[in-house]
Every structure is written in structure tokens, then in C-alpha cells.
Amino acid sequence: MATRLSSCIVAAALAAFASTGAFAQSLLEQPLTPEAFSACVQNLADQTSTAGRPLTRTDFLRIAGNGKYDDRVRQSMLVAAGEPTFWWDELAATTDEDRVREGRAILAREGATLKKIEAQFGVPREIVLGIYGIETNFGPSQGKIPVLDAALSYACLRPCPASASGGAGSCIARERAYAAVRVLRDKRVRAENWQGSWAAAFGRTQFVPDSFEQLAVDFDGDGIADIINSEADAWATTANHLKQRGGWNMNAPVYLEVVIPKEQQAEFAATGKSIRLPDRARPLSQWMAQGWRVLGPKGEQLTPQLTGDPEMYPFLPVGLPGPAFLVSRNFDTILRYNRSERYVMEVSLLASKIGGGGDFVTAWPTDDPGLTRAQVRELQAWLLQRGHAQVSADGVMGRNTRDAIEQEFVARGLPPQRRVGQRTMQLLMQPQ
Ligand SMILES: [Ca+2]
User: pLDDT tens digits for 91-133?
Assistant: First the structure.
């Protein structure tokens, strides 16, 4: 639930918004006033008796009274929801060579610790590293918004439906605010520097306070579960999440790339959405008996013999034409970590590459494949030279970069677009 990945949860957040009606949607249109925020905090205080875990009104007010409204939360919700992005861009950037190299270096350096975590929790070390890489770029990108402020602002921007009368899970945003207060009450983090994403996810593998309370592990044995400073604690906490919320089958890959038999392809034609059919789960051998072909790294046909013949089901990110997969229940387990199919594939592809695997064999349906982060930085440096001072060369295709790209396309008399791939980067940057 990293800052960069916020788009993943935003879709779910906005879907929930929709169900609470126009009033909630209108809350995002302008910053909350100090009066509205203060009234909201009071309102939260009045409902502490419904908290999933005990929290007194007095404790809530004492601690939440130090919280501030942070408008970056609202802005992030709007930005992430408004900009369409593509699988081939996101996967190219998030699993690029630099990140794979860094992941392998950590695997080499910390192999003993990762092996112990794998043995204790039954979760592959590459998957733990995949999550670490995608969430915070292996540590440095943990977010810069005070977690208490983020949790309170989020709860106030996303009020609970009236039907949420209380109890754990009845209202995620409110529970998160209560959990943030309890984490401070119980002194489980240092209050003065507790920062994270707009959605209040913090630490090396980005836990929200409610998950942290339930799942945090002290793995390095110093008596504190410290997912901010200790890699071992963060990794074990992540492995514990996967183990507790779904579990891991060590005999099953997250995905196998497949070719679907011609006569069965019609139902998988592109619809503009992903196609995921968990109800069709059945043993891999049955898919293969029906003519589904498993692809190896060079496009060769494989006949994997997996212990226990795990159940798998079809998943197509963009439909056909495009990459097609059979995925296992391990896919669902990662999905419970972060409710985004793209996130699951980013983590799994990065994990596979760290373990020596390669990109998908089947091409995405585009003639303009995505850029690595190094290429995005090169593009941004060029945009800066062209006078787009609002761009920063950080390798992230954010709104300012997309605005500048659009202006450059227009300036060249080309059809405007807000992304650049391998082909259009050449086109855009060639001397005129
Ligand atoms: Ca520790």
C-alpha cells in the first residue's frame, strides 16, 4: 500500500465512496475546513465504543487532538483516480533491471535471514522481496505524511455509511484511525517521526495501523516489532500477513503463462477489463488435458509436474490478444495484501525475475512498450531542458510529467497523449 501504489486502493476507495452517495463524493472537491475536520474528530471520539479493539474516548481525544488535516490525502485520492494507466507501462517500470539487480543484491546479502523467514512462515523469500521492492523500493520510499494525520484525514474524507453501526471491519477508514491512535497510545512507534503514505500505510513493507496491530512480528529479537527500521521485522511481518490471510502453497507458482486453445479463446476476448475467474479453479493437470499449454521462459511448451497438482484458474490482465495466465490461490493471498490485480502481478513478476525468471513471453497489445524508470528519468531530464520546470527527474510518471508530455505532443502537431513508450519516446525526443 505504498504511496506510488495508491492508485490500487483508490479504485476500491472510490467504489466505496459511490455507495455512500453524492454527499461523500462532494467531500473530495475541496479541502476540509478546520471546523469540519474538528467536528469529524469529535464525531470519531463519540463512537470509540464501537472500535474493533478497545479505545477510550479520553485516550482518543488526547492523542487525536495532536492530529492535523492533511490535504495531500484528498489530492492523492483525486489524482490517482483520475489518470488511466496501462499494464505494460506499470510492469516495465516497477520490475525494471535496476530493481531486479537491487533485489538480487539483498537476497545475496541477507539470504540467511530471508531463509529463516521462509522456513518459519512458509512464504518464498523472493515474494517477500518482491513486496519490499514494489512497496517502498526496498526501503527508502516509506512515505512522508504523518500517519496519524493521514489516518484521521482519510477517515474524515471517507465517512462511514450510516449502516456501519460498529464492530471490527464495519468501517475500514474509521477503524484505521482508531488503530493509529492505539499504536501511539501503546508506544509501538516513535510519535515524532511516524510517517507513511496518504492511506496511512507505513514502514518498509507498508502496513496500515490496523494490520500492524494484528500481524507485526519482532523477528530480530530486540523486543520491538519495528517495521520502519528493521528489515527482518518488516519481512517477517509481511510473511506473517500472507500466512495468516490466505496462506501460501509452496508447491504452486503464483502464475503460469499459458496459451489458450483456439476453440476456447472466444470468451477471453478483450473487454477493456481484466478477466479473472476464481470459480473455475481446478487442478493444473485438468487444464493441460483440455489443451491449455504452459509456456516456458523462451516460449517453449512446458509440462510442469507440481506436487499436489494445485488448483489454478484463468487470469487475463487485458484479455486476448495479450498475456494469459493460470493463477493459483497464492495470487488471492497477495491480493489480500493489496487489493489490486496489477499489484499482484508486479510483485510476482519482480519475485520471478529476482529468482532468475524473465518477462512474460506473450506481447502486450501495444506497438509502444513501456519505459524503465531510468528511461523515464531520461525523458524527464529532457522535459526539464525543454523548460517544463514543474517536472522532477524522479523516474515516476506523475501528473506533472504527463502534463509536460501532453504539451510536447501538441507543440509538435502530434495527436496529444499523456504517456510515452519506447517508440513514442524516440519520436518525441528526435531533433526537429
Ligand atoms: Ca525487532
Answer: 999 999 999 999 999 999 999 999 999 999 999 999 999 999 9
Q: What length does the chain have?
A: 432
Is 32:157 a contact under the CB 8 Å cutoff?
yes
Question: Which one-letter DSSP state was computed for residue 209?
Answer: H
Question: Nearest-CA neighbor of 206 among 140, 122, 162, 304?
Answer: 140
**Contact yes or no for 312/281 (Cβ under 8 A):** yes
DSSP label of 53: S
Cα(243) to ligand 1 centroid in Å equals 19
Strands (E), 75-229: 145-146, 195-196
Q: State residue 22's pLDDT score.
A: 41
Measured in Å, residue 64 CA sits from the centre of ligand 1 at 27
Position 25 scores a pLDDT of 55
Q: What spacing in Å lies between the alpha carbon of 229 and ligand 1's midpoint?
A: 9
**Cα gap 135→148, rounded to integer Å:** 20
- Cα end-to-end distance, the chain, whole Å: 42
Distance 329 CA to ligand 1 centre (A): 30
Cell of 77: 485520492
Q: What is the pLDDT of residues 297-321, one digit of tens each?
A: 899 999 999 999 999 999 999 999 9
**Cell reading at 384:** 526539464
What span, in angstroms and rounded, lies between the C-alpha atoms of 397 and 89?
9
Smallest Cα–Cα separation from 212: which of 194, 238, 232, 191?
238
- Return the exposure string of 303-321: e unless at least 16 CB atoms fall within 10 Å of the residue's CB, then b: eeebeeebbbbbbbbbbbe
Cα 214 to Cα 55, 198, 220, 379: the distances in Å are 15, 21, 18, 43
Domain map of the chain by residue range? Answer: 1-85+144-202, 373-429
